[in-house]
Amino acid sequence: MPQEIETVMTKRQSIREFDPKVKISRDEMTAMLKMAITAPSACNLQAWKFIVVDTPAGKEKLRHYFMPFNFPQVDTSAAVVLFFGNKLAYKKYRKLWQGMYKAKKVTKEAMEAALNTFMPLYEHASEAMLKTDATIDTSLAAMQFMLIAQAHGYDTNAIAGYDASKAAESVGLDPEQFVPVMAVAIGKSAKAPVAMRTSRYDIGESVDYQ
Ligand SMILES: Cc1cc2nc3c(=O)[nH]c(=O)nc-3n(C[C@H](O)[C@H](O)[C@H](O)COP(=O)(O)O)c2cc1C
After folding, report:
1. Is the shortest distance between the CB of 161 and ligand 1 below 6 Å?
2. What's the burial of 207, exposed, middle or buried (CB within 10 Å: 0-12/13-18/19+)?
3. Nearest CA owner, ligand 1 atom 19
4. CA distance 136 to 47
5. Which CATH superfamily is domain 5-205 in?
6. Is 158 close to ligand 1, i.e. is its CB under 6 Å away?
7. Which pLDDT does position 24 carry in this prediction?
8. Domain extents for the chain?
9. Residue nearest to atom 29 of ligand 1 (CA)
10. pTM above the 0.85 mark?
């Protein structure tokens, strides 16, 4: 059963050497990603796309554009999940609302009001806004994924140390549409968890109340 949220959050720490014997079934991976997408997203656009790399051939492709200091995670993890932002997520947005309407979750008026408000925003959005929105949505899903992975007894390492210009094409995605946000290596630590953790600045340095 999932652990208390605080326990899960404080137990998570970046693990860079996994037990290579540990595999994660695709059913369990999908279940964890299904939980990850309970994340909020701007206008509920859900501008994310996940590529789960859990085969030797897939891992080999990552080695062509990941930085060498991230090879241990690539090589020893059960999987590396690539989190991409989808800049054209708004193109399937009507379908989402129509589904909610059919499921009687919203009235026709509410559906039309939402579509009339949000669709023009995205249809006329700048490239920068589409990229930012997709990056934020996807980051939230990635964080949720790391926490749910922890609750399932796995360890993770978020990774942005790779040549981002090669990420989408390497897995057959259109680089014009899909922006690489981060990768998350997942597995079980090869060693017992270390007591020494990374430090955080004093909270006072990051918080102002107004
Ligand atoms: C967006 C992002 C990118 C990161 N990229 C890498 C990376 O390329 N390689 C790596 O070993 N760790 C990477 N990390 C892990 C950080 O180094 C780590 O989260 C940080 O030092 C705090 O330690 P903790 O995760 O153990 O709390 C990344 C983390 C984030 C959030």
Report:
1. yes
2. exposed
3. 14
4. 9
5. NADH Oxidase (3.40.109.10)
6. yes
7. 98
8. 5-205
9. 158
10. yes
